Amino acid sequence: MTTPLPPEHHTPLAHEAQVHVDLAQRVADSPSFAKPDHTRIFVVANQKGGVGKTTTTVNIAAAMGLRGLRVLVIDLDPQGNASTALNVPHHEGSAGVYEAIVEGTDIDELVSPCPDIPGLTVLPASIDLAGAEVELVSLVARESRLDRALQAYLRDCEEAGDVIDYVFIDCPPSLGLLTVNAMVAGREVLIPIQCEYYALEGLGQLVRNIDLVKAHLNPALEISTIVLTMYDGRTRLAAGVVEEVRSHFGDTVLRTTIPRAVRISEAPSYQQTVLTYDPVSSGALSYLEAAREITLSGGESPS
Ligand code: ADP
Ligand code: MG
User: Do the Cβ atoms of 299 and 36 come closer than 8 Å?
Assistant: First the structure.
């Protein structure tokens, strides 16, 4: 065995390796996650595309499922990327969240289990959902249709003795009626922020929309969690972005940042999450740790 060099001699690579070892240790120390005392419903939102909403949704949900929690993922993006990553059928014409929102079909009839992760159920999206944005406009209670369908489903599950611990709603990259439906159905907003120049740009608009929904439709809504994604430790820029976001959002920012990692981006093309595709990769470990942090953050009980 070689003696480790003191930290001041660490190369960036050695530093990254040390971070990985520390992370693996902490993950190994936490075999199962604590159940919340009520169902926590997260809206994963950011109107910018490509910031890691879907990746964060599926990997945090997978981490929780693998650690013994009951989790529901609602794919609210017509592109259906979350449905793909979780390996559930969602071809054009197949039933999913569209039927729940527009036609009032029971969610119970529309969900599929994720074949690779115990405890994880998915309400998939197909491209038909693209029409919902327009169709919703003329429907009654157009902003609260997902909320009603979800609450009915959660009650049915509970009565059947199958209490759902966490719900994650993966939003499309817009602030239209689908995202508003998610914000009315949810209690906590989880915002993934990509570690890049102008990371905070556009967030003001998102925060104003959340405030509007809170004021008029869902007083319980809070921004509870910020996740920094695609962090590249070799750049000064990334560290600067982390500092800026932390000074702006304080304690809501998870301590765990998600690294930019090839394994994370490869996993969906095998209909996998990184947790099952490469469970010991830095991407998998960081999502496990981020999920653990969320389970420790509590979440206010609904009054
Ligand atoms: P959004 O849902 O916000 O549009 P995605 O989660 O689909 O964003 O991510 C956008 C792209 O970036 C995808 O191709 C995804 O695989 C990739 N990606 C996301 N997070 C990471 C990461 N931490 N490292 C590498 N690639 C990532
Ligand atoms: Mg997405």
Answer: yes
Closest Cα to atom 16, ligand 1: which residue?
A: 265
Query: pLDDT-based confidence at 300, cuts 50/70/90?
Result: low
Q: Rounded CA gap, 225 and 257, in Å?
A: 12
- As for how many domains the chain has, the answer is 1
Contacts of 271 (CB under 8 A, 6+ apart): 84, 85, 86, 87
Domain that holds residue 164: 34-296
Residue 137 lies in a domain: yes
- Protein residue whose Cα sits closest to atom 1 of ligand 1: 50
Residue 8 lies in a domain: no
In short, whether 55's Cβ falls inside 6 Å of ligand 1 is: yes
Residue 115 Cα to ligand 1 middle (Å): 22
Question: Quick check: helix, strand or coil at residue 42?
Answer: strand
pLDDT at 18 over 90: no
The pLDDT value recorded for residue 303 is 46
pTM (2 d.p.): 0.91
Atom of ligand 1 nearest to the CA of 56: 6
Pocket of ligand 1 contains residue 252 by CB under 6 Å = no
Nearest atom in ligand 1 to 261's CA: 24
Q: Is residue 28 in some structural domain? A: no
